[in-house]
Structures are given as C-alpha cells and as structure tokens.
Amino acid sequence: MDSEKQRLSIEAAKLYYQFDYSQQEIADRLGVSRPTVSRLLQHAKEQGYVRIEIIDPREDVNALAKALQDQYRLDTVLVCYSPLNEYEEIKKSISKKAASFIQEVVKDGDIIGVTWGTTMHEIALQLEPKPVRGVEVVQLKGGVSHSQVNTNAMEIVNLFADAFHTVARYLPLPVIFDNLAVKEMVDKDRHIGRIIELGKQANIAVFTVGSVKEDSLLFRLGYFNQEEQEQLRRTGAGDICSRFFDEKGNICSEEINNRTVGIDLPELRKKEKAILVAGGQRKIEAIRAALAGGYANIMITDQFSAQALLQ
Q: In which family does this protein belong, per the annotation (predicted)?
C-alpha cells in the first residue's frame, strides 16, 4: 500500500508541477477523486518528493546594486526588476523606479535639470505632484527638432515642473547647430545665457544615455549628415545631453561638441545628484562609457543591464 501511495504521489506531483495539469485532470488520469489528488500532492511535499524554491528578485537586485556601486564607485545604485529582457519592458521598469526616487529626494529649493528622450518622457509621465516650495526645473539642452520625429522636450520639462509646482525654463533652440558662428552668436543672448547658467547651478540632473546605432533618436532627428553619422558610429560609444563620447567617456568630436547647445558634460560631475537612468542591451556600451567618464553618481537600471555591466 505504501509503495502504491508513493507511486501515485510522485505521478501526481509530476503531472501537477512539471506538466501543469489541474487537480481534476490528474484525478481523471489516475482514476481517483480530486480530494485524493490534493492529499497525494501534500504527501509528496511532506516526503520530500517535491521541493519548492521561491526566487525573490528583490534579493538579487540588491546584490547587483551593491556590486555596481562598488565597481563603478557610485554613491547610489537602484536596480529594478524587469520581467523581460526587452528594451520597452526595461524602459517601463526603470522609468517607474526613477520617478519614485526623484519624488523621494526632491526638496524645497532644489534646481532640477532635465534632458529629453523616450526614457525621460516615461519618467515624466510617472511623476506625481509633491508639495515642495522654491523648486526650479530647467532644460539642460536644446530641444527643437529638424524633422517630424517628436522629442517630447517641452512636454517633459512641463511635466516635471507641474509635479513640483513650478514654472518650466526652456532652451527653445536646436540642440546642435549646423554653423558654429551662429551657435556662438546665440550663446551671447542674455536669456539663453541665463537658462544655461541655471542648468549649471542645478543640484539635481536627470538624464539618460543614447547609443550611436542607426536607430538612435538623435540620428533620426536630422542633425547630422551621413559623414558625421559615420564618424560618430566609428569613434563614439554614446551621448549624454547630445554630447558624444568614446568608450573612455571623452568627447569624440570637438567640432560637433562646439556646435551643441546645453550643459557641458564636466558640469555633471559637480552635481549633488547626477542621476543616470538607462537600461537595455543596446545601451550597455554607452552606459559603461558614461560611467567611465564619471558623469553620474547615481544610477537606476534593471537586473539584465546590471549583470551585463558587471561582466
């Protein structure tokens, strides 16, 4: 009788745990009642025929965060759990985590500098109002597009400003000028100068990284000719605030950089909180290069990207 119970318990456990049969389907297959199947499954667990292991992703991400913090000498790392290693799913997960973190750390009198891009747009959409006073929100780079592709630049800075009960400060310019002389002339404008200076004064900067692949948002916006795109793909690893850098985090084209409107990358190293929000396999090279350049002291990413960055 015991050997028969053992056989039935193991058979029921295999059908239930390995092949996803319902208890009623198992009862029909074994020729017993459904309550008997329930008792057989319980017996299988008690006898050690079945071992159930619970994987808590929060435990794994905490360990990954600590490893990243140590390896890249960051002040804070938050690794969120993404159910899939797919860019859109990762973007949703890290944006939600970033919005929550930003809301937590912003306090009265802060100056928040923001960039634009699809990740930044997701973060902005997730922000909830917070009752703070004297906060300012400023755009860290120009946001006017040369194409029909929407940067959501104005919406992003408006959403940040709405969340913290303030007025948005825009840079209503192309992010990269075709002509250096025109860009230098614009730099002399008092209004533009005040906005750029406010970006320098920001104690919080929120930004992501772009890749130098063909589907890069900046490439689709029409700022670069074919020769410039090829140069950036050949020498660049990524961009922050539309300033392109190589694998060591150094500017890879001074000529393009001089035509770019917005905060200079070394200014990010001076921020109290320089928050890099990025993830996805196509951005690993850019993230690693940004960290090599020391442009962030806080990073928010996902467990798949964290694992890749630690390799």
A: Belongs to the SorC transcriptional regulatory family.
